[in-house]
Design goal:
Strand content: 5-15%
Distance between the termini: 12 Å
CATH architecture of the largest domain: 3-Layer(aba) Sandwich
Largest sheet: 6 strands, parallel
Number of domains: 2
Bound molecules: magnesium ion
Number of helices: 9
Length: 241
């Protein structure tokens, strides 16, 4: 690509920075079922209600949508949501500390470290987790050191808005204007891919969550990886690297 080519009114060239927007659950970390189990536990503790989330889809959804839906369905007072989330964060920290199966996805720490050392690359979060929960999950594995800002699932809205917020906060934080061709959403569910496509940015799907390579490929992301333990650079940097 020619260094003087203009894209979307911005100068794009070899030095144009890359923004990588990372989902957490199934993409950076694997602790299947822990988030859901903790949410259920808090409904039991605060309201004496079992199986509060039955039938509510989790993968790729926002925490605030999942819990808000349960509150409404159960006829609970939304004024108790702050109390709910405070309890959730406390229990989440305990549950992750106690879960010997909780782990990072294969090779992800090395990938983040390499990107962190690359002056062209910026890593931010784009996740359905509430922000406090996101940092708890990352701290459990020491991955929090790779991130400063992101978009989170505190407010019920469509997932692409979370990604949009991540871009806006990255630009404000780093004083950089990213071109869509160099913004990449990385996630393990069709919802991550749909959100990126809706914003007109690149998407990379990784099959380390509940969806396999074929199911993710059907969403037509720019690239699909079985995991980050294979050669991942072409997927993240496109054909230029
Ligand atoms: Mg995920």
């Amino acid at each position: 690509m020619d260094a003087t080519e203009i894209a979307h009114g911005r100068l794009e060239g070899a030095d144009s920075p890359y923004l990588f927007i990372w989902d957490i659950d199934g993409t950076l970390t694997q602790a299947p079922g822990v988030g859901r189990a903790v949410m259920e536990q808090v409904f039991r503790e605060l309201f004496g209600i079992a199986n509060a989330l039955e039938g509510i889809p989790m993968a790729g959804s926002l925490d605030s949508v999942i819990v808000g839906t349960a509150f409404d369905r159960l006829g609970l007072d939304r004024r108790r949501l702050p109390e709910y989330w405070t309890r959730y964060c406390a229990r989440l920290e305990e549950a992750l500390a106690a879960d010997p199966t909780a782990r990072t996805t294969p090779n992800i720490e090395a990938v983040l470290a390499e990107l962190d050392a690359d002056p062209r690359a910026y890593n931010v979060l784009g996740t359905g987790n509430i922000e406090r929960g996101a940092w708890i999950k990352l701290r459990r594995f020491g991955l929090d050191r790779f991130f400063e800002v992101g978009g989170f699932g505190d407010v019920p809205q469509e997932r692409w808005r979370v990604i949009e917020t991540a871009v806006r906060r990255a630009e404000a934080r780093y004083g950089v204007a990213f071109v869509p061709e160099r913004i990449t959403v990385i996630g393990d569910t069709p919802r991550d891919i749909e959100a990126g496509k809706r914003l007109g940015v690149r998407t990379v799907a990784v099959a380390t969550g509940p969806y396999d390579v074929d199911a993710l490929a059907a969403c037509r992301p720019d690239a699909v990886l079985p995991s980050f333990a294979v050669e991942w650079r072409p997927a993240l940097f496109g054909s230029e690297t």
